[in-house]
Design brief:
The protein has about 950 residues and is mainly beta. The chain has 4 domains: about 300 residues, Beta-galactosidase, Chain A, domain 5, CATH 2.70.98; about 350 residues, TIM Barrel, CATH 3.20.20.70; about 130 residues, Jelly Rolls (Sandwich); about 120 residues, Sandwich (Jelly Rolls). Helices cover about 10% and strands about 40% of the residues. It contains 15 helices and 64 strands. The strands form 14 sheets. Strands 1, 4, 12, 13, 14, 15, 18, 19, 21, 22, 26 and 27 form a 12-stranded antiparallel beta sheet that branches. It has a 7-stranded parallel beta sheet with strand order 33-32-31-30-29-28-34. Strands 5, 6, 7, 8, 9 and 10 form a 6-stranded antiparallel beta sheet that branches. The longest helix has 16 residues.
């Protein structure tokens, strides 16, 4: 790993060969090697390749510390190979080198021409990552040449103290058909990887023995981690799009019966890579270490990249983001009004930014509204990030993507210049979804043009990072991780997968994991585990995924507010991929620790990383005994001690070590009493929710449903105050439709407060309504009901601890206008969708039918009518967006019906009414949408009598 310097400076001095040399921070110095320990003559030992060929060593190149040695090998038929050892132990067996172009096959029959070894010192500054500041990385580089058919190929191989990297260079353009570059490991080695990497590199790492790899015909993701003997080897690539003419991104593959992991062009690269001028390929990197700390802290990936693009990067300010998209329904567009709540919350908690994700372009007069939010945020000291969909292929939901897809340089410049003009601080660019050459050039342009417009960049739906943040310091993070975003739909990533990221994906660059910092339904991870991910995974910037109205009052919020986003130092204290890991990171004088585990264990943390002679306070955030919140414990410690952390199954802990005072209680906790909705006295039909999909977005993972539609269906809460007077009451609720609460204090229904219309936009997003209520000294009851209609679902309430100098809220007595369809006046015979014929890809989801659309349909084949005539069809559906549904009766013409968003895809169904013609006797009704997705279908009803 590169040596670390804490203070940044424009100029550094180095002593090279006894001579004082002045070097720029971004200068790459080179020096011829004369030390025989760094460039050795071949041992003439005969080595066997996997195909039986006998190889002869022609050159050995050592790392600066002499421990890692790369051997260059030849075969009699003109093939060239390399092998790598660490402390005398072979870690990479003889592996092929070379490329095949449309003109020359450099993989065989080439003439080897010995070159020279130089010492390369890379010095540069990183603005974020596992350790920011000045980096100095030193290696020995051997460059030799292959000649064939009057063409030349240079092969550069670098040997660092923590690994090996190599690439190819040609002094003219060429069409590269393939590489034979590969890694070969011992039959006893094991590989942490996943097969068939998708276009966004979101997968589940598992451990595979090399015998399994040898038997398979598969592709494998990078980065992948290999354990061989006493060594760990991380396989990845670097320097993919740090030049104007980019190569493509790649991953690894095997063929049946071969354990050789061969580099192959990645997703979407159809055919050869065409380079028009002199070029270098990306670097093929193998980080080699006998311990996890050295592996994780390696800088090879950034060190092989080109120096920074020449501009002023003082605008780059990493930070934390409030983000509304995850806690809203499905892939629905974000709503405009809630963004004010997110900006307010960010300002109150010291978060630097709010991200306007997918959907802002669908707002009426969207440019004016975005500018309005930017101006409001600026007044609050908060910056705005803006999401862009770069690829409109296959992303046409609500017609939004083609409106601003960044498919060419002109569009990128136009959009980023407009964004700069209104004060946008960063762009989140999504949906690259390819590894091909054109996509890499697209990423290069986005990074470069964003830098020119003083904007930070977050890449999403993209390939893995390859150190390009050295070239473009405004690139703060990449997705390319199976992150917490997927908890929106799935129970993955698993806790084992999350633990493995520290030793795989996070090694090569910042990972936008988008932590919820709170438990999510279905995955079994505790409060301690989920809060710990905020430090365990280095993100470059932190997108907090949960709804800000759920974070309010959370015991872990003080830790979230306090954790830095950039780090001066990272130390891996312990870890086994897929099992457990403990990492500690330093920001200035304070240290932050995260320990995660899948199985119950005691983490014995050696505190020798703390400064000697000082006493620190450890603020320990762990899962409480009831497993329903965070418990905070304080303890005085020194660097001579060990800290024991008792962890349960899928559990974790976070610790802040500081010598300064730290207030771990937020203003919310100081000023309000919070009561979960389900903790009240529930009467009539009111009951706790039981929908894991919806519940995961609420505080406590439950809400109270079916309040209202009669005064007896209510929820009552008992509170105690010391003084009589007016108190602030915050109501946290969920409702996809305009609904009201009626609130009575101390059973005074005559003096009840009728709230205004409440609508959170869907059936998963939590919103907050503030009212002011008159309470008596002592015990009071607060009852929520609605005797006119259904009320919203109630998540929780928060009551101020002290009186406020505000008048009590007046009741809103505006009459609601209810528009009903004539079909609502009929009695219906109901038919459940899951009991019908489900065909062509539609799926039975136990309580509804999903994935209707295209060829997929549901057929109700036993619909009985007493006589021929016009009947009403009542269609109960669920959808997070406006969709069409198509009805066909007895094979007749299609009837297209609009189904407005019900606010969600899994619960709280809505209904529409359609007039249909039925025959006397048995009829068949087909429900589909040949032109797109239909809503999820709950059931249909057929009126008992005809119209």
């Amino acid at each position: 790993m590169g040596s670390r310097k804490i203070k940044r400076a424009a100029i550094v001095f180095m002593m090279l060969m006894g001579t004082l040399v002045l070097c720029s921070c971004f200068k790459k110095s080179k020096e011829n090697i004369t030390n025989k320990n760094e460039g050795k003559e071949p041992s003439n030992q005969e080595i066997m390749y996997t195909d039986g060929a006998k190889l002869t060593s022609v050159k050995e190149v050592s790392s600066p510390d002499g421990k890692i040695v790369a051997s260059i090998l030849k075969s009699d038929d003109g093939r060239v190979f390399y092998a790598v050892s660490n402390n005398g132990e072979i870690v990479i067996e003889a592996s092929s080198l070379g490329i095949v172009t449309d003109k020359v096959d450099f993989s065989v029959g080439a003439e080897y021409n010995e070159g020279s070894i130089i010492k390369v010192t890379d010095e540069y500054t990183l603005l974020n990552g596992k350790h920011d500041g000045e980096i100095t990385d030193v290696c020995n580089q051997y460059t030799f040449t292959l000649k064939k058919d009057e063409k030349e190929l240079d092969i550069n191989i670098r040997v660092y103290d923590d690994g090996v990297a190599y690439n190819y260079a040609m002094g003219e353009g060429a069409t590269v058909k393939r590489e034979v570059s590969e890694y070969v490991f011992s039959d006893k080695a094991s590989l942490w990887t996943y097969t068939q990497p998708n276009v966004t590199y979101e997968g589940t790492y598992t451990k595979q023995h090399m015998s399994v790899v040898k038997a398979a015909v598969a592709t494998y993701t990078v980065p992948s981690l290999v354990q061989t003997g006493d060594n760990w080897v991380l396989l990845t690539e670097a320097s993919v799009f740090d030049d104007e003419e980019s190569y493509c991104s790649s991953y690894l593959k095997t063929t049946s019966g071969s354990k050789n992991l061969v580099w192959t062009f990645g997703n979407g690269q159809a055919g050869s890579v065409k380079m028009t001028g002199a070029f270098e390929t990306p670097w093929r990197v193998a980080i080699v270490a006998d311990n996890m700390n050295t592996l994780v802290n390696s800088d090879i990936v950034t060190s092989v990249c080109k120096d920074k693009y020449d501009t002023d990067y003082s605008f780059v300010k990493p930070g934390k983001l409030a983000w509304s998209w995850w806690s809203s329904t499905g892939d629905d567009p974000i709503a405009f009004e809630p963004q004010y709540d997110y900006i307010d919350f960010a300002a109150e908690n010291g978060w630097e930014y709010v991200c306007l994700d997918y959907g802002w372009v669908l707002w009426d007069d969207y440019k004016a509204k975005v500018k309005e939010l930017v101006d409001y945020a600026e007044e609050k000291g908060v910056g705005i990030w803006l999401w862009y969909g770069v690829n409109d292929s296959g992303h046409t939901a609500a017609g939004s993507y083609p409106k601003y897809s960044l498919l060419n340089e002109e569009t990128i410049r136009t959009e980023f210049q407009w964004a700069k003009s209104i004060g946008i601080k960063g762009v989140k660019v999504d949906y690259y979804e390819r590894d091909n050459q054109a996509t890499m050039e697209q990423m290069y342009l986005c990074a470069k043009i964003a830098a020119e417009n003083e904007q930070m960049v977050l890449f999403h739906g993209c390939t893995n990072p390859g150190g390009e943040n050295r070239t473009f310091p405004n690139v703060l993070s990449y997705e390319a991780i199976y992150g917490a975003e997927y908890y929106k739909w799935r129970t993955e990533p698993s806790t084992a997968n999350v633990i493995t990221y520290l030793f795989t994906r996070n090694v090569v660059g910042s990972a936008d994991f988008t932590p919820t910092a709170l438990p999510v339904a279905g995955i079994g991870a505790t409060h301690g585990f989920m809060l710990g991910t905020t430090v365990y995974i280095e993100s470059g910037l932190i997108h907090f995924a949960e709804n800000v109205n759920v974070y309010e009052g959370y015991a872990g919020l003080s830790f979230m507010n306090d954790i830095p986003v950039t780090w001066d130092e990272t130390i891996v204290l312990e870890g086994i991929p897929g099992a457990y890991g403990t990492v500690v990171r330093r920001a200035e004088a304070d240290w932050y620790l995260a320990s995660l585990t899948t199985a119950a264990r005691t983490a014995e943390v050696d505190l020798s990383f703390l400064e000697e002679g000082k006493t620190y306070t450890a603020y320990i955030y762990k899962t409480n005994a009831g497993k329903d919140n965070i418990e905070i414990i304080t303890k005085k410690v020194t660097n001579a001690e060990k800290l024991s952390l008792e962890l349960g199954i899928n559990d974790g802990a976070s610790v802040k070590f500081t010598t300064d005072d730290f207030d771990y209680t937020t203003d919310y906790e100081k000023n309000y009493i919070y009561i979960e909705g389900e903790k009240g006295t529930l009467s009539g039909d009111a009951k706790p929710s039981n929908n894991p999909y919806n519940d995961q977005y609420s505080s406590g993972k439950k809400t109270v449903e079916y309040i209202g539609n009669g005064i007896n269906n209510n929820a009552t809460y008992t509170v105690t105050v010391e003084e009589a007077g007016v108190y602030e009451l915050n109501i946290f609720y969920i409702s996809a439709a305009d609904r009201r609460f009626m609130i009575s204090i101390n059973e005074d229904d005559a003096g009840r407060i009728r709230t205004g219309k409440l609508n959170s936009g869907d059936w998963v997003s939590v919103s907050k309504e503030t009212i002011y209520v008159e309470l008596k000294a002592g015990t009071n009851t607060i009852k929520f009901y609605n005797d006119e209609a259904f009320a919203p679902n109630l998540d929780r309430i928060a009551l101020s601890k002290a009186r406020v100098n505000v008048a009590a809220t007046e009741s809103d007595e505006e009459k609601d206008v209810v528009i009903t369809s004539p079909g609502a006046n009929y009695e219906y015979t109901m038919y459940e969708a899951e009991a019908a014929t489900i065909a062509n890809g539609a799926t039975n989801e136990a309580t509804f039918v999903g994935w209707l659309g295209g060829a997929a349909y549901v057929s109700f084949e036993n619909i009985k009518a007493d006589k021929k005539g016009t009947y009403y069809l009542e269609i109960w559906y669920m959808s997070g967006e406006d969709r069409d549904i198509v009805i066909s009766v007895n094979g007749g013409d299609d009837i297209v019906t609009k189904c407005p968003s019900s606010g969600g895809y899994h619960s709280n169904p809505a209904c529409v009414y359609v007039e249909v013609e039925l025959n006397e006797g048995i009829n068949t009704i087909k429900v589909s949408n040949p032109n797109g997705y239909a809503p999820n279908l709950d059931k249909i009803g057929v009126s008992v009598t005809n119209k």
